[in-house]
Here is the input.
Amino acid sequence: MQVPAPFEYERATSVDQAIGLLERLGSSARLVAGGHSLLPMMKLRLANFEYLIDINPLHDQLGYIRVGSDSVRIGALTRHRELLESDELASAFPIFRDAERVIADPVVRNRGTLGGSLCQADPSEDLSAVCTTLDASCVIRGPRGERVVTMEQFHVGPYETAVGDDEILIEIRIPRRDNSGNAYEKVERRAGDWAVVSAGAAMWLAADGTIADARVGLAAVGPNTTGIPEISATLRGQVPSEQAYEQAGVIAARSCDPVTDQRGSEDYKRHLADELTRRTLRKAVERARS
Amino acid sequence: MTTVQDPKFTEFHDNDQKPVGFGRMLRKEDPRFVRGRGRYTDDIQLPGMLHLAILRSPFAHARVLSVDTSAAEASPGVRLVVTGAMLAEKGLAWMPTLSNDVQAVLATDKVRFQGQEVAFVVADDRYAARDALELIEVDYDVLEPVIDARRALEPDAPLIRDDLQGKENNHVFDWETGDEAATEAVFASADVVVQEDIVYPRVHPAPMETCGAVADFDAVEGKLRLWSTTQAPHAHRTLYAIVSGIPEHKIQVISPDLGGGFGNKVPIYPGYVCAIVGSILTGKPVKWMEDRSENLISTGFARDYIMRGEIAATRDGRILAIRTNVLADHGAFNGTAAPVKYPAGFFGVFTGSYDLQAAYCKMTAVYTNKAPGGVAYACSFRITEAVYLVERIVDCLAHELDMDPAELRLKNFIQPDQFPYETKTGWVYDSGNYEPTMRLAMDMAGYADLRKEQEEKRARGELMGIGISFFTEAVGAGPRKNMDILGLGMADGCELRVHPTGKAVVRLSVQTQGQGHETTFAQIVAEEIGIPPADIEVVHGDTDQTPFGLGTYGSRSTPVSGAAAALVARKVRDKAQIIASGMLEVSVADLEWVKGSFQVKGDPGKSVTIQDIAFRAHGAGDLPEGVEGGLEAQICYNPSNLTYPHGAYICVVDIDPGTAQVKVRRFVAVDDCGTRINPMIIEGQIHGGLTDGVGMALMEMIAFDEDGNCLGASLMDYLIPTSLEVPDWETGYTVTPSPHHPIGAKGVGESATVGSPPAIVNAVVDALKPFGVRHADMPLTPSRVWDAMRGRATPPI
Ligand SMILES: Cc1cc2nc3c(=O)[nH]c(=O)nc-3n(C[C@H](O)[C@H](O)[C@H](O)COP(=O)(O)OP(=O)(O)OC[C@H]3O[C@@H](n4cnc5c(N)ncnc54)[C@H](O)[C@@H]3O)c2cc1C
Here is the structure.
């Protein structure tokens, strides 16, 4: 049994109470959501915190999926499993179900949360790539009230986000537009493993069938989950075609920044960035059209 | 609601069928496991028990300058802190390994691999023990490590084992087998010679339960009780006695339920010794359970062979000779568990299932700054490596000759009338009938159709591969005239006692780690004396309760202890026959055995059951002249030879040409393990082994960075396969009984682990044929497959 260093534990009773505790305890405290990133690090003693504030009691308030006509709002404490199983979410944004099917395993998905995933900001994490692809924004609350940031602003660096020591990520907001489709693909060495590379793509088509907007988000190919503006710029206005996807794939391979590790060589990862970008764009267009 | 049952599922049950002897039946031990009532080492709780945690080296190679334990000793709840220096004072800092090397219990001079034991803490609970480790200050002088075995013998390589008197390099041993000159002569005149460098990377058995022990030394009785995760309780007891000086009759080793072993639990680990020392010094029971990372980085690994294979053949595909040169990485201490005269285990069977004119192997083993061990993991003493080598090199030959790999194998098999067959490396294969096994596998797979499908797919640019492996194993070590571990002969005892009411207890020297001994051995005894398996208690794993024997590994339980169980039952039956002759008032010769009772020949109405006889054996009234009361016997079985199971495996894979991901679509496994005792248990062993094979072929590897940091220290880093990576196994069988085994059975525990990796790799390589690929090393992760597709296949190390 792996044993973490001693720590104090408190269950949150409300968001404001949790913020109050964070304010008082500063960087020696951490929120625990699903615990599937935090606890393994603590058990390996890669991270030691004096206080854990458990926000699971707030699941009633922070665990929700609200699908509106122009946006979808998802509470930070929504679990992977809830994201996987929501038909409403899958019909608005099929990319979520694509991704959730290949994130970890059922045991992790039963507990792990959207907020925890984003706040962990692991470069290989999948939901950040999904949110980047969908141009989501993040609602952060702290002692001084609420603020809303884009995914680009949210990710400050590997394992670093815009969420301050005394703040909590509350909600993710995703804009909805018509004629859109999106998809996610991941290559892993084994079911339940982190991505070698994964890619998400979203396509918005204009009435004439050309690409009104397109976004690609990649995971595991750089210090941060990578959104690639150049792909969007290149695709906008084009008619969807293999050639267009190929262009996007080439840009993806060129603009990412993978490193060689046990999961694969840098070359291979660039190749996958290309291949998966093409595959997901293709599927996103199919979905936008149907 | 209707429930749909997979029709195949019913095959796993006997339903209401309860065989008195061989046949399918549910495992007797399973109710306790599925109901959470198993009792593992970590479940042992003793009054006043303390907990032990081990401080391990963060470095692969470093001099230990000083160890300061004062802060740890002052930490709350801490009872004891022990360093290598303290053990050295008691002469316990070093212990012998199973290969006559020594291994540090706690480092005194240097640490020689990352994860090596440096000090231990005993405290009131496991948390206090673990926290105190952080307070031990060790001053290290970091040295250059030797990580790549190919560097170990370079003249300027750092010397790892400066503890060994006069040692000037990192050489462990040289070993050779076969006839070098004869082999060279065959190679020199052969039409075709193929050479390939083949690496079997280091992997780890990774049993679900990690290693651990509870030591309880009673100073008044002078008795040590040790519950430990061991596959060989008797051998361990003897070694503890020799090392510690505690007399053997005052040591009781108990191996309770084990959560998997796979060879990982054959060696004696420093942790067990630390627990014993901790209990002696504190006067309390002490528990040590390693965590997952400790298990992965410090306990017995497997494989790590860098092999050069060469095969010589005629142009029309007659295989003439095989030659190999092996560099074996043994880690920091030579902890290989193998019979003493076999430093390379049974690697000598690398000649496979083929009738050769010559064969030769030369091996060099070296020390590196990696964890010791070396022969764990369902490998039948290095047969895994041997089978991989021969089945890979035969496929390379098929590639070169542009010949179908099935046809090539069929053409070269040892023929049924050649058995017993002595190989060119001196192994006497007891029996075999290879072609029917191969043909059955090909029929089950629909081999010809698969090749047609492959051709069509290739034309469309799809990547499909068909891989074959045909293996012969040598299991059941072994004849005591040439097999022993540290001087202990590899024969197994067995005792059988029939109680007055006809129920029985059989005591085994071997220990189950999940193989189902409590069922299989009850069935073996049942088959011989006709007492139903449900009425036979199988006792194992406790040295105070069972006769001496060397334990379960190398697929030896059924070949050795299974034979012992059958023979001891026959002894009991012989005695029962004499008692029956008295009961029926006829001569012994006039009785015939009809399973479960003795009948008077020609008069089926006159008979006594084994239960009647058992009662009479313990009851009132006279027994025949010279017969003592009771109905029991004991035996020590010394096998006359190993048993040689074989099998034909066919694997079908699909590879995504865009991502290079391999999907194992089908796997057909036809095994021949001789007489089949419980087919369900055999299938379970096969399913598990095949899954292991998928792991090794596609994902498993204990890798190190250049500083010697282990990159597989958790199950997030060291991948083992899940149900999602494996297909629905298609199993079949043929039966070629062993001629020398009392019931004709051969071992099967490791067959699938041994036989499946080459089938999978051969399938992947076959799929990559359009890219001109002839070989690619394991693990065939997507990235490595992609490299192979681009003509850049590289060894994993
Ligand atoms: C075996 C395994 C496999 C996995 N595989 C994958 C995978 O393939 N893909 C993938 O994407 N992920 C994977 N994960 C990670 C998993 O998805 C985690 O659940 C997730 O990364 C973290 O979510 P959590 O709710 O468990 O967060 P926690 O571990 O509880 O928290 C993580 C961090 O976020 C902070 N935090 C949590 N919630 C908030 C909040 N509302 N506001 C501010 N800070 C917060 C915590 O303080 C902590 O620092 C895997 C995990 C495991 C154990």
Notes: The mean pLDDT of chain B is 95. The pocket of flavin-adenine dinucleotide is lined by residues A 30-38, 40, 76, 103-104, 108, 112-113, 115-117, 119-120, 125-127, 163, 168-169, 192, 194; B 716 (CB under 6 Å). DSSP finds 18 helices and 32 strands in chain B. The longest strand of chain B covers residues 192-203.
